[in-house]
Amino acid sequence: MRRPLAVAFCALALGSCGTNGSPAVPMAEVPTVSSAKPDKLRVEQAKRDGHLTVPLMISVQPGRDEEVEQALERLGATVESRDPRIGYLRAEMPVDKVEDAHLIKGVSKVDLDEPLGNKLPEP
């Protein structure tokens, strides 16, 4: 007797997870320029620390990875890896050009990729 109730509850819960009340936007209407700029404070800190380049993780719109990679290279970046299946590029970008990366058509988001500190925990 509990199983049908559990199935109904799950269906209701999953149904409410959909679009959060907002209509679905067709891909053609998705903006082609990123609205998510990289964190200015972290870029400024990298400049103060004397870094010439910073690692970036860049989210790319489907099918635009080669176009974005070429644009990044024109800005002086070195693309270290890319995965078109999930739409991400990892690039080493000159610190003074980071602000321009989000202006590239086809870029959804730009994040500074922080290296992991491999310090041993102290007791």
From TrEMBL:
<keyword id="KW-0732">Signal</keyword>
<protein>
    <recommendedName>
        <fullName>Peptidase inhibitor I9</fullName>
    </recommendedName>
</protein>
<feature type="signal peptide">
    <location>
        <begin position="1"/>
        <end position="21"/>
    </location>
</feature>
